[in-house]
Amino acid sequence: MCICLIGGIVSAQELKSPNGNLVMKFSLQGNGVPTYSLTYKGKDVIKPSKLGLELKREGGAYTFDNFEGKGQIDESTYDPKTSLYDSFSIADTKTSTFDETWQPVWGETKNIRNHYNELAVTLDQKNTDRHIIIRFRLFDDGLGFRYEFPQQKNLVYFIIKEEKTQFAMAGDHTAFWIPGDYDTQEYDYTKSKLSEIRGLMKEAYTVNSSQTAFSPTGVQTALMMKSDDGLYINLHEAALVDYSLMNLNLDDKNMIFESWLTPDAQGNKGHLQAPCLSPWRTVIVSDDARDILASDITLNLNEPCKLEDVSWIKPVKYIGVWWEMITGKSTWAYTDDFPSVKLGETDYSKAKPNGKHAANTAHVKEYIDFAAKHGFDQVLVEGWNVGWEDWFGNSKDYVFDFVTPYPDFNVAELRDYAKSKGVKIMMHHETSSSVRNYERHMDAAYKFMAENGYNSVKSGYVGDIIPRGEHHYGQWMNNHYLYALKKAADYKIMLNAHEASRPTGLSRTYPNLIGNESARGTEYEAFGGNKPFHTTILPFTRQIGGPMDYTPGIFVMDIAELNPNNHSHVNSTLARQLALYVTMYSPLQMAADLPEHYNRFLDAFQFIKDVAVDWDDSKYIEAEPGSYVTVARKAKGTNNWFIGNTSSEEGHTSTFTFDFLDPGKEYIATIYADAKDANYKTNTQAYTIRKVVVTNKSKLTQVAAPGGGFAISVIEADKAATKGLKKL
């Protein structure tokens, strides 16, 4: 750390990462404007960039022209003190070093090291008698910083008009981006230069059930970039609590990103009360793409676990009554008789069943039987509760009650049947974004779950938010998501929220958050398809904040086989679908296809049965965003490893050693790979399975087809088990 003195006042500070590769410099520029920069091994990562916030003017006095006249605001009484971005002086600086190792309840590794050097700068704004703290934490793999607003008399309740945090790029980097939006992240990724974003935005902005764009150069985090000189740079945020989600808006002439917060119904970006904190803004950087994937910065910048008892939180592998509805083979709704329903008034006993309702007792039992036979933990059932006939697109307040089943879904019978088979049913709460209604029913819904043996719930927020005018990613909704998570913990329920804000590491603090969607998942393969390189990008973007309920495991790629009217195609080989259980990390993994499809390919299905969902260690073997990801993970409490590779439409040849295995031991490696003629479009189900013996000295060269991949189970074995197998 270096301190420069001008006239006896600290004006600049330098902070180094523990290994010295990263250097952050902080100073006040011009009229007391907070500014920072970041370098990695001497290369510019963030050029000098401004920090601060602009506050909304406080309301003026209300006057009357006369008692019958029209009221008006006296603008002379407005508070002009809207700047928290200039006129600062440095009042104090504190530096410290922190180093701990902590163990997550579940995760990619058993142990996580949290090692950083910290600089906390207290800034005084003398003309307003206000002060803020900007806290920087510099890790070996990146930077985190946030704004802190201590208790003080002149900054108590305040409204954010704009957050003015800048990230000035050092060049016209290659970026992997989705359009900035207040309501959805469910877009395909675009790869382009930063300067090309504006011209490509219209094509990238595809239709969604709820969406609100804000700029032709606005993009979302986590944003992945690569510089021409080989630096991998990721911009995101951590610990999003009581604040608005951050998008990024690009000044494409100067290559400067500025934070762009999601507004509320009044257009405000946040209502705060000191003392309070902003989320951390994060910059992860390395000259090795694997370091981006292995980074724990997002988790480390969150608070430790706040739940005293975590014994009930268990990773889950599940199947579900879901894909058949997504493809249009079956329906969520029980009947086609009602153009609309009113809960408590509509009499379903008088309705004619449509014959396609999937969530019926007999059919769910079939799924329970399949789960029990193949060792799955739970069965998700969607469409079990009344109200699906008019649930979407009507801005309907009282849309679901989350406790009343359709006539053909017997809660008690299925509860007892699942229990007898050693399987749990996973609850589904689609809110239709009627958030007031969900909160109104939440206690009753969670109590219903507890009484009937459900310990996990998939929630959904499809459509525009009620209260009307609020956005999915605004402060009000972020507070709701956390409220639902805390309330679920009260009932010992694990939560998997879809259409919610993308994760920012809160699963460290509340590990019952075992999943989120918050990106374009497998369901879009039935809605026209995802780009083949999609799964090579998500680990660098969406998953930087936490695991994704991506719902892999599709074996039948031609959707017309399920629904003749749906001509979508899953852009993946079958072997890659297996690999996703390893490359797309999550403690919540679904085998998303239909049981009858798995029965056609039981040899390949074996990998899904075998693969773990919780890990002691993870090794990123090779990675390049948009091209390929290969990772090896060690199953929790065992010596068994699982390896996965996902590749783009260009395919990929991997060559690697098994040096992560224990020396002196032998393992049986079962390799599930693309056949020579496999292709994500024309020959998706062509795969091979072979078994070989491997040690920590073994070396493998394996080809992934276009849009393909491979999956390998590596199981410790004795001499008798390896007899007759080829040694690699």
Automatic annotation (TrEMBL):
GO molecular function, one term: carbohydrate binding
All copies of domain Glycosyl-hydrolase 97 C-terminal oligomerisation, residue ranges: 614-714
Keyword Calcium in record: yes
Keywords, sorted A to Z: Calcium
UniProt domain Glycosyl-hydrolase 97 N-terminal: residue ranges: 15-304
Domain Glycosyl-hydrolase 97 catalytic span(s) in chain numbering: 322-519
InterPro entries the record matches: Aldolase_TIM, GH, GH-type_carb-bd, GH97_C, GH97_catalytic, GH97_N, Glycosyl_hydrolase_97
Pfam families: GH97_C, GH97_N, Glyco_hydro_97
Known cofactor(s): Ca(2+)
Known partners and oligomeric status: Monomer.
Protein name as catalogued: Alpha-glucosidase
